[in-house]
Amino acid sequence: MGLFARAHRILLRLARITRCPHTNKVAGILGVRDRSFETLEDAKAWLRRSATDKERGDFVDPRDGSITLADYIATHWAPGRSGAPKTRQNQERRARLHIVPHLGQVPLTNITATDLRAYTAKLEATVASVDSRRGILSELSSILEAAVDDKRLARNPMRSKSVRWTKAS
């Protein structure tokens, strides 16, 4: 058995499922927050999935995505931007005027393709310029992609096949 396989077995042995009267708690995986489940089967399934994802480096704790989009933009995305001052001003303006008022109070993990289709339709009704709409959607996509890079989202919902971007003029 290789070193990696032994380390994985030790990791799973350290994890434990504690049964309480109303919940089952998974604890003891390094780098993974403890979680509670209603059934023992749910706890075991989550433990298997999270251990596999952690091993691959793909684990995203859903609680890290509980931050709202507005808070994520203000505390994580905006401070890390680079580029020319005019570019940063345009990015800030798109986020402030078009993204935050409509999706700002939604937690990152709750942003769905349905929300984004509705948002795209709202943009088509309120923003006349096709290029402006595409710029706003591009900005939103880059914000959500940064959240994926920061391990706050498993995937960017703007990349869903059902989310249609405005055609370029």
Q: Topology of this structure?
A:
Layout (H helix, E strand, L loop, with lengths): L2 H12 L1 E4 L4 E4 L7 E3 L2 H17 L12 H9 L7 H19 L9 H14 L3 H20 L20
Helix pairs in contact: 4-6
Summary, kept brief:
By secondary structure, the chain is mainly alpha-helical. It contains six helices and three strands; from the N terminus they run αβββααααα.
From the structure above, extract its key features.
169 residues; mainly alpha; three-stranded antiparallel beta sheet; 6 helices; 3 strands; 7% strand; elongated
Write a structural description.
The chain is mostly helical. Strands 1-2-3 form a three-stranded antiparallel sheet. 18% of the residues are buried. The protein has helices at residues 3-14, 40-56, 69-77, 85-103, 113-126, 130-149; strands at residues 16-19, 24-27, 35-37. Strand 2 and strand 3 form a beta hairpin. The chain contains six helices and three strands. Helix 4 (85-103) crosses helix 6 (130-149).
Strand order of the largest sheet: 1-2-3
- What do the pLDDT scores average to? 77
Order of helices and strands: HEEEHHHHH
Q: Biggest sheet, open or closed, and with what strands and sense?
A: 3 strands, antiparallel
